[in-house]
Amino acid sequence: MPITISSVNIEERKNLGLRAGDTVRVWQKITDRVVEKDKVKEKSRLQAFEGLVLARKHGGEAGGTFTVRKVIDGVGVERIFPLFSPTIDKIEILKRAKVRRAKLYHIRDKATKEIKKAMRHERSEKKAPPVAEVSKEETKA
C-alpha cells in the first residue's frame, strides 16, 4: 500500500502545463477558526483568485511556485502560490496567450503607465471650464 504524504496529486500538477501568459483561476482552501462557548470550530471554504500568470519558478520540483497578478479597483495584487500546496484545491486554466518571454514582470510597469495616463485624462477633463449653452429664445431677444 503506497504511503500518502500529501493530498495533492503530484503527477497531475506536474503535467498541468502552466506557463507565463496563462489566465488562471486558483481555488484555495481557507480555514476560519470560530470560538463559540469555549469550543473552537474550524470552518473551511474555497476562495478563488483569478489572474494572469507572470512567472513560474523552479519547474516541477517540490518547491515550484507560480505568480498570479490581478487588478482590483485600480490596485495590482500579486500572489505567489506553491505548485504542490495542499491548500490549493484546484487550478483552472481559463485562457492561454502566446507570449515571447518567460517572465512577464514588465506587465507591472505597463499597467502603471496606463493608469497614470487615464488619471491624466480625467484631470484635464475636470480643468476644462463648463460650456454654457445658450437657448434659441435668448438669442432672439
What does this structure look like?
This protein is of the alpha+beta class and 141 residues long. The protein has one domain: SH3 type barrels, CATH 2.30.30. Helices cover 23% and strands 40% of the residues. The protein has three helices and five strands. It has helices at residues 10-14, 106-127, 136-140, and strands at 23-36, 39-57, 65-72, 75-82, 88-95. Strands 4-3-2-1-5 form a five-stranded antiparallel beta sheet, covered by helices on one side. A hairpin with a 2-residue loop joins strand 1 and strand 2. The longest helix has 22 residues, at 106-127. It is flat, with a radius of gyration of 25 Å. The N and C termini lie far apart (99 Å). The model has no long low-confidence stretch (mean pLDDT 84).
How large is the share of residues in beta strands? 35-45%
According to CATH, what is the class? Mainly Beta
The radius of gyration computed from the alpha-carbon positions, rounded to a whole number of angstroms, is 25 Å
If strands are numbered along the chain, what order do they take across the biggest sheet? 4-3-2-1-5
CATH 2nd-level architecture? Roll
What would the principal axes of the Cα set say about the shape?
flat
Portion of residues in helices?
10-25%
| Cα separation of the termini | 99 Å
Q: Which spans have pLDDT < 50 for at least 5 consecutive residues?
A: none
Coarse structural class: alpha+beta
